[in-house]
Amino acid sequence: MANILIVDDDRSTQRVLADALSKLGFTVTVERDGEWAVKTFEKKGFDAVLLDLLLPGLNGYEVARQLRESVRGRKTPIIMISGVYKNAIHQREAVHKHGAFAFLEKPIDLKHLEATLKDALGDRFPAPEPVKPPQPPPPPLEEDDVTGEFMADDQQREEVQAVEQQARQVKAAPSAQTASGDFSRKPFAEVLAEIYRWRATGALRIWRQKVKKIVYFRDGTPQLVKSNLLVECLGRVLVREKMISEAECEESLKRMKSTKRMQGTVLIEMGCISPHNLQHGLLTQMQEKLYDAFRWDTGEYQFTPRVSPPPEPLTLGMTCAQLIHEGVRRAYDAKRLARVLKGIDGLYVHPSDEPLYALQDAGLGEEEKELLQMADGHKTVATLRALELLPALETDRLIYAMKCAQMIELRDSPSEGRPRVSFAEIAAASRADSLPPPLPQTASLPPPLPPPLPKSVAPAAAPSLLELPWKDAGLAQPVAAALAPPPPPPASPPRGEEPVVARPAGSLLPELSEVVSLKNLSNEESVSRERLAAKVSAMRRLDYFEILGVKQTATREDIKRSYFTLAREFHPDRHFQSASGELRQLAQEIYDLISIAHDTLTDPMERQRYVAELAQGVKREQNEDVGRILAAEGKFQRGEELMRQRQYAQASQSFTEAIALYAEEGEFHAWLGWSLFQADPSRAEDALRSIEQAISLNPRLDKSYLFLGYIHKANGRPDKAEKQFEKAIQTNPDCTEALRELRLLGRARK
């Protein structure tokens, strides 16, 4: 059977290509990281490589160069793909300069891909499977196929026990504030949307016969899913997603059972999976636990508010609208849709009047976005279906999902007057088109004999930019500066001269002298906190017209357009993945400011009152919380500088002062714990408590798990250390320090 390697960091593209090539008879392996793709190619034999040009780490051209340097890679056809570099010049360079067999544009025409692979592989292209005679019925399922008992690891068994225990606790202590019901009356998709509408934090317990699941929410968005089904195990997901083979799965299970280690760690050590693919597999595993509930026509639910999600390194990573859209797409066939959409053909589809709902990120494709833009309040469900922008079944799925997500409403009557521009259309128009990044440069490759170049398609003309209202409205300098993109990061010091943050070599752990480098200190979250705080600080000094970037003579339509653009940028969905308390608070404050400005200026009476106040010289006061956040950030940065200088006791004091000003930021607590341990190893317990507090506030900060791992390792607990290093990788697959420590621990076991 022919083997093909797909290298693309877009998971939807991976899935489409993997499914199509599997149906053609290929054995498929997928990778999203260029460096790991090279390792996978060296480890396994491949007949062809399908290679995207834009990849994290190594770009596609550099991957091709490294593949060509190996004996096996010189003869392996590489088909380059790209949705950005796709003009005739790029196509010619891919083939003649970089040694590609062919170049295909995204979105990929699967028939064209099949023909290209036939040209590239010749006799090695998989032959169609002969028609098989009727087969006898399959043997009875083995026990593990039903229970998942053999494939489960210790972590999943602990999850099962926790779900059973928590389910009993919730059931034994009902609250007057809980909401409950059954799925025969309210489908799971509508339950999710209702909790999003409440913007609630809490736990949703769902059960059907012996199956129990708990979905944890934060601010209305599902964060985690835990289940008592062992059959929903990681190994099955990784095999199904083409990340590992059945044989690799079996071998990892044997090693997992004999060493009592996590399957992910074992697979990385075996070289079977990259950290990025492990993270994706774990996310897919969690998401499928949630999608399973969309298939339930029966079952019960109970939502208990004010239950904080447990600190886990990974969350679902999708907005509520994305989960509803994908869950409906997977779980609803024509029969189920006919039941839930009965009698709606003559209803008119209106866009939601509430930006919080209408501007949700639902993860729609281009055709779906186009169909949603057609929902202007003047077209019925039957009319939208007749447009045939999507097949009828997909149209019904989209309408039902968007209705559940509250992005559209179904009404008996059409909108009054002319069709108005929908939120979806304004959001699409306000999306600034960016130029493709510069073409990566690598050394030239000696090209093989090139095949005929595929027909080039001229790049589509870029749509015109929607001119943002504040560009011509004399926007005040503070907001203009605050809304500007961040300055480029300072140049990295030359290799070999990079300062490090650790105890001197020969002290606690000699190998720690080179693990936490300067580049890891001022991370992206710290920069984002400072930028958002500056935006809030600037906006709070402005009047409502300046906040929206319009003149006092602006029309109601001008105000709405400016508001829609800003609301889209600072919508809670844009920041839901941030586990940082500061970031979420600051983004919400900006969203609230622009919403209040919009509501005031679009109401004639309120606008008149507000303009009169401005004429009397009414000034807005600086928000105290923003001042504290900015001061706390300054203390934290001072602590970072002291860590660079290895003044650990003084750094601890600065981090303590930052926490006194703003105690909700997990990163402050993490670095406080690490500085305490660096200053005095005998304070390990204090350090652990501080870092565990950091994890409870921000479970997605890889440094917290890394620091815990170091401390456990120093205290002679490699078993505990290994679990923390794996969590660091789950949170950040590019955490090279954690990977290094796992390798060292693996060697020590041998």
Q: Topology, please?
A:
Layout: E1 3-7, H1 11-23, E2 27-31, H2 34-43, E3 48-52, H3 60-69, E4 78-82, H4 88-97, E5 102-105, H5 110-121, H6 143-147, H7 154-172, E6 179-182, H8 188-198, E7 202-208, E8 211-218, E9 221-227, H9 234-240, H10 246-259, H11 263-270, H12 275-294, E10 300-305, H13 320-331, H14 334-340, E11 348-351, H15 355-358, H16 366-373, H17 381-386, H18 392-404, E12 408-411, H19 423-429, H20 477-483, E13 500-501, E14 516-517, H21 524-539, H22 544-548, H23 556-570, H24 572-575, H25 581-601, H26 604-615, H27 624-644, H28 648-661, H29 666-679, H30 684-697, H31 702-714, H32 718-731, H33 736-749
Parallel strand pairs: 1-2, 1-3, 3-4, 4-5
Antiparallel strand pairs: 6-10, 7-8, 7-10, 8-9, 11-12, 13-14
Helix pairs in contact: 2-3, 8-13, 10-11, 12-13, 13-18, 16-19, 20-21, 21-25, 21-27, 23-25, 27-28, 28-29, 29-30, 29-31, 30-31, 31-32, 32-33
